[in-house]
Amino acid sequence: METTPLLNGAPSTTSTLTLLENGDYAPLRSFKEAKSVFWIETVKTWKIAGPIAFQIICQYGTNSFTNIFVGHIGNVELSAVTISLTVIGTFSFGFMLGMGSALETLCGQAFGAGQVHLLGVYMQRSWIILLATCFILLPFYIFATPILKLLGQEDEIADLAGQFTILTIPQLFSLAITFPTIKFLQAQSKVNVLAWIGFLALLLHIGILWLFINVFGWGTTGAAIAFDITSWEITLAQFAYVVFWCKDGWHGFSWLAFKEIWAFVRLSIASAVMLCLEVWYMMSMILLVGNLNNAVIAVGSLSICLNLNGWEAMLFIGINAAMSVRVSNELGLGHPRAAKYSVYVTVLQSLFIGLFCMVVLVITRDHFAVIFTSSEEMQRAVAHLAYLLGVTMVLNSVQPVISGVAVGGGWQTLVAYINLGCYYVFGLPLGYLLGYKADLGVMGLWGGMIAGAALQTLLLLIVLYRTNWNKEVEQTTERMRLWGGQDISTDRINNSI
């Protein structure tokens, strides 16, 4: 038996579609139906991706404005704070974000299955795990100075960076609450509030930086305190919103948070490894480039390219999170075909965005470096790398979407193995051989590592193509039953999200 109801909140074009009794799509039978699905899934994805991308850009701005204000104090101060935020901060941020990403799988699937009350339990479970993770990461903050000296930093910079890092320990612990809370809200598509909190926090951060550095003259100490205050402002604002305005998902603190915690830890670690293998891959390239001849130009030109690539990455991180929410929600609802179609539509759109960015970049390759440097030699070096940057942008347009699918479906362990093999067994050694042995320099290093990323993307696309979405729904049901602290029926909610 089939019916043709309208999807909740979707355009009127859904009337051309045939839907199954549970609200999932029936197989597409015409180009007109495919076009309708494309439009529906576009609207659903970007309603989530837009606010998330804006929030991430605001978060990116918090670090940027901290560097800008510190840069007016002195070069040593700027170098020290940049090193602290880039090396120690990025390492801990990436690991904590990865540990918290397990919540995207579970909260999204629980919300889709109609088990909204479990979201609060899962969030508390993640708080416990991430707070424990903070204590594990604490030695990196306490011993930041000797670690940075071991990595070859000058004593003056390492000493100041170590002092700044110790002062930002409160910010580390704020992440243990912030990340799970963000995933809790994202799973319910309550993303507009995250965007507003991020925007207001950025404005307040700029004001606090000006007060502490320009008025009080507290220097890097003031910058660290401002960084801590802003982080906890975001944390407390999100927590307050959850407690007072999310009554369906939040029912107070529960002892169920300690149930099946080790299974939760395993998924969290898999998420962290999956993400960190990607983050460390790019960091390792920067370290290798630093050992080339004429390292100043090599590192400088690569840094400009990666900086520009970073802004595009903010958009696709938003799409990554949206994809995770869409896939996990649809699997929780028992809609395998809707999950599949949402993935295909988003991959196609992201590919077009990446190709557009590559074309613009290639056309402006001799000019865009002027934004970052006045050195003609550096501009020529950047223009020389523009084609590799363009290819990287295309790969980075598809890869985050598939990673979002992996998180939404709970495939983190599989993707971690793929990342390990493609990046560190194939890409990194190939880059080393091309860069050093073949004497191709930064072009060889980056080219080899792009090959690793391309292989990873290809394998993920094959995994995606071979995915049995009906089986994914069954695994979602089993996961909810085991980790929810109660039995959950395989019957699904017949309402569309």
From TrEMBL:
Entry membrane topology: Multi-pass membrane protein
Domain of life: Eukaryota
InterPro entries in UniProt: MATE_euk, MATE_fam
GO annotation, biological process: xenobiotic detoxification by transmembrane export across the plasma membrane
Keyword hit for Membrane: yes
Keyword Methyltransferase: no
GO molecular function: antiporter activity; xenobiotic transmembrane transporter activity
Transmembrane region(s): 127-148, 160-179, 191-213, 225-246, 267-289, 295-322, 343-364, 384-407, 414-434, 440-465
Location(s), subcellular: Membrane
GO cellular component: membrane
A Pfam family of this chain: MatE
UniProt entry keywords in alphabetical sequence: Membrane, Transmembrane, Transmembrane helix, Transport
Family in the record: Belongs to the multi antimicrobial extrusion (MATE) (TC 2.A.66.1) family.
Protein name, UniProt field: Protein DETOXIFICATION
Native source species: Durio zibethinus
